[in-house]
Design goal:
- This protein is mostly beta strands.
- The protein is about 0% helix and about 55% strand.
- The chain has no helices and 30 strands.
- Strands 1-12-11-10-9 form a five-stranded mixed sheet, with no helix packed on it. Strands 25, 26, 27, 28 and 29 form a five-stranded antiparallel sheet that branches. A four-stranded antiparallel sheet has the order 4-3-2-30, with no helix packed on it.
- The radius of gyration is 19 Å and the shape is globular.
- The chain starts with a strand and ends with a strand.
- The model is unreliable at about 1-20 (pLDDT under 50).
């Protein structure tokens, strides 16, 4: 294993018996739920979710410690899940996934070499993890069969932010590939900036760019997402509770707007997603007035206008929107439910369907079509 460390100062598995999914229904999705396992949860749970009716049917589960974030491969046959442990056992696992039955099967596990991995992304060639307490981004090359090779590269963040408690040590919170496939962006939480890396087609190792995107001090950048057309990006900040909108072009993020999502100063901004049609943006908040801020997106320039706020269960750390845009599912960790909200496609507002999915400490929801 080759491990490269760049300091950026200048810039046992058990599965329950699966149920067969109904065939031929285009509205049915496979749904994966990551959890914390310090309660009664055992790991990852799978469901069949009908994106026309908003109903969920349990399929199976697999035991894995603290799989707090996971992502499927593009074809849905593989799942990459972190084990968010605050010690040297922190790891990333690859699992085979049967979309019809919901069955998950562990393939292999590699250490992240950074504590508390909390985000994972893949482009089919490598997998990235953001290691929150470790303050690093790990890069795992993939074998041809999609299993993980050991960590090849670690990139380390820094701590220069003003918060004397939450920015005192480095934290990397999100790592993702740009929609054009040429770059990686990572949120350097404790330095109030977004880091950019350059990908090369013949080199598995990303290269640190000469540029970092600085944002307002005491922001705590958390999650970043791109618009469906790839022309804009949106950042939710944890500490300042704002959404920052950017123009995006060939690796360049140009800030165009900052708008408040957390109006009570809870310092608990969490997740951000756009509707599939790109017309509405949603940002979740925790710690006080737990809920989801709703913004309309101006199609001409990508700027945002707040149109509503939906109160949710406690601690909506992550949420997701069905591919057809009809439902938003909020993983409310401390209420032990995933709430199913129906979206009004004309106004962007949410309506609680009261079809709660009961899961102990859910923290991540992903769909496979």
């Amino acid at each position: 294993m080759k491990t490269l460390l760049y300091c950026m100062l200048g810039l046992s598995v058990a599965a329950c018996a699966p149920k067969k999914a109904a065939n031929g229904n285009p509205d049915e999705l496979a749904m994966l739920v990551g959890t914390y396992t310090n309660g009664t949860s055992k790991g990852i749970y799978t469901f069949r979710f009908d994106q026309e009716t908003g109903t969920a049917t349990p399929l199976g589960s697999v035991e894995l410690p603290n799989p707090s974030y996971l992502t499927p491969s593009e074809d849905g046959k593989l799942v990459y899940a972190v084990s968010e442990m605050n010690d040297s056992t922190a790891a990333l696992s690859s699992l085979a996934f049967d979309k019809e039955t919901g069955e998950l099967r562990l393939l292999n596990t590699e250490l992240t070499q950074g504590a508390d991995p909390c985000y994972v992304a893949t482009n089919g060639r490598e997998v990235l993890t953001a290691n929150y307490s470790g303050g690093t981004m790990s890069v795992f090359p993939l074998r041809p069969d999609g299993t993980l090779l050991p960590v090849d590269t670690l990139f380390e963040g820094i701590a220069t932010g003003p918060d004397p408690v939450r920015q005192i040590v480095p934290h990397i919170h999100c790592t993702l590939f740009s929609p054009d496939g040429k770059y990686i962006f990572a949120t350097d939480f404790s330095a109030d900036r977004i880091l950019r890396f350059v990908l090369h087609p013949k080199d598995i190792i990303p290269h640190l760019s000469a540029e970092a995107i600085d944002i307002e001090a005491d922001s705590g950048p958390r999650h970043l997402t791109f618009s469906p057309d790839g022309k804009h990006a949106y950042l939710v900040t944890e500490l300042s509770g704002k959404v920052i909108a950017f123009d995006y072009d060939d690796g360049r993020l140009q800030q165009i707007q900052t708008i408040v999502a957390d109006t009570v100063g809870a310092r608990g901004g969490a997740d951000v997603h756009l509707s599939p049609d790109g017309k509405y943006l949603y940002a979740s908040n925790r710690l006080q007035a737990d809920g989801i801020a709703i913004f309309a997106v101006d199609p001409a320039n990508g700027t945002l206008a707040k149109v509503g706020y939906q109160l949710t269960g406690i601690h909506p750390r992550h949420f997701n929107i069905t591919p057809n845009g009809k439902y938003l599912l909020a993983a409310c960790r401390d209420s032990n439910v995933i709430q199913v909200y129906e979206r009004d496609e004309n106004t962007g507002l949410l309506r609680d369907t009261h079809q709660d999915i009961v899961v102990d400490m859910p923290v991540c929801v992903q769909f496979v079509q």
